[in-house]
Amino acid sequence: MMPNRIETKTTEAVEVTTEPVAPTDLGLWSQIAEDWIAHGRDWTLPGFRAVAVQRFGVWRMGIRPKLWRAPVSLLYRMLYRKVRNGYGIELPYTVNLGRRVVIEHQGAIVVHGYCTIGDDCILRQGVTLGNRHLARPLDAPVLGDRVNVGAGAKLFGAIQVGDDVQVGANAVVLHDVPAGATVAGVPAKIVKLR
Ligand SMILES: CC(C)(COP(=O)(O)OP(=O)(O)OC[C@H]1O[C@@H](n2cnc3c(N)ncnc32)[C@H](O)[C@@H]1OP(=O)(O)O)[C@@H](O)C(=O)NCCC(=O)NCCS
Asked: Which of 67, 112, 120, 158 has its CA 20 to 30 Å from the CA of residue 132?
């Protein structure tokens, strides 16, 4: 499931060949309904709104012909900018976003357009999932399922983070992390392995 376009601070809308794919066969409203439940049934939460706009952005890519998609894309881009500028959450539609991903709190959350985030992951305020070197702008982390990312953590480069990993607050993760591990520190090291 590879995206067709990325929108990040460092790489403005880089075109590639394939299209984003919804992580599930669920329809748009079913996905948003389970996201709403995952966010404590509070539609006012910025995290829920950011995820809902991302789902909408993916869904709209399925509208054919392209001409009919254009006004919907315009709406999506307005909503994307509102979430980014108002809540400080950059979550482009090209992110391969799993089901029931929770964004707890808001502010300084940056997700590279090429990231994969598995089901039931949690991201918190100040988290960056991004590329490590400007010379390799398409590198982005891949998170397994149920990855719990602490406040302020930074994950850089084309790294693989296994299922059930805990990333400590303010950790800087530069290497792959095995499933079940807890990592913390700068640079992040394994402090526990289940
Ligand atoms: C990483 C985390 C999940 C580990 O929790 P835990 O499984 O209970 O592990 P422990 O507290 O026993 O810590 C294990 C070791 O890692 C260290 N450690 C834990 N979190 C750390 C962090 N964020 N940075 C650096 N070291 C950390 C502990 O000091 C301990 O080291 P020690 O064995 O030398 O004493 C937790 O500390 C954490 O950072 N959670 C994020 C919470 C968060 O972001 N909250 C925001 C709410 S808005």
From this structure: 120
